[in-house]
Amino acid sequence: MVVVAVFVTCLVVANVTAVKLVGVFGLVLDAGTLIFPLSYIFGDILTEVYGFRAARRVIWLAFLCNLLAVGVISLAGALPPAPIWEGQEAYETILGYAPRLLAASFVAYLVGELANSFVLAKLKVATEGRHLWARTIGSTLVGQGLDSAIFVTLAFAGTIPTSALIPIILTQWVLKSAYEALATPFTYLVVNRLKRREGVDVYDRDTSFNPLPLGR
Q1: d(CA 67, CA 59)
Q2: Per UniProt, which keywords does this protein have (predicted)?
Q3: What is the pTM of this model?
Q4: Is 39 helix (H, G, I), strand (E, B) or coil?
Q5: How far is residue 202's CA from residue 204's CA, in Å, rounded to a whole number?
Q6: Which of 60, 158, 165, 193 is least surrounded, with the fewest CB atoms within 10 Å of its CB?
């Protein structure tokens, strides 16, 4: 339950904080980059310990929670402000969602997270549970690569030159993947503790990998 709560929180907070651009070592990134990669780390933990089916349910749960958050924030912004409140413009600037960016974010999240979980589950079976570090980093390279490529392409294609899209995709991909690699000791710690505490270590040998939460 704790892992699920952190996973969902990471996604929702990342979308809210992404509106702010920050400068880090000469690179311009959205502030959501600080926390969004954590969703992949906890997604790896869910898949490694509880299997693809459990991770798939949580991925869709987080999607619905994020959709609820966006809906409530948008509804609140559309309601007429009280005469004594002067923060409407600031509210819309910070919490207003551009439909195209929102759609790009949702699609990229689902594809990236599900691909990350799928690859990790398959690699776990192929390696018979060995080399967790290689499985978490390998699955992240695939998931974050798809996430970055889909989001940047859907969000900005046609508005900036194609030649500029590739560097943005590569920068996001490398930074987020490096984040995951650096967090490998933390992933080991949590995974090993959960496996010992709960006596669970699922191998997805007979699992349906249908991306919809309907498979066995």
Answers
A1: 12
A2: Cell membrane, Membrane, Transmembrane, Transmembrane helix, Transport
A3: 0.90
A4: helix
A5: 6
A6: 158
Which of helix, strand or coil describes residue 24? strand
Amino acid at 205: R
Domain layout of the chain by residue ranges: 2-198
**CB proximity list for 46: less than 8 A, separation 6 or greater:** 3, 4, 7, 54, 55, 58, 117
One DSSP character per residue, 83-125 reads: TT---HHHHHHHH---HHHHHHHHHHHHHHHHHHHHHHHHHHH
Using CA atoms, how far apart are residues 54 and 20, in angstroms rounded to an integer?
33
CA torsion 9→11→15→16, rounded to 10°? 0
The CATH architecture that domain 2-198 belongs to is: Orthogonal Bundle (1.10)
Q: What is the 3-state secondary structure (H, E, C) of 126-195?
A: HCCCCCHHHHHHHHHHHHHHHHHHHHHHHHHECCECHHHHHHHHHHHHHHHHHHHHHCHHHHHHHHHHHH
Contact 31, 21 (CB under 8 A): yes
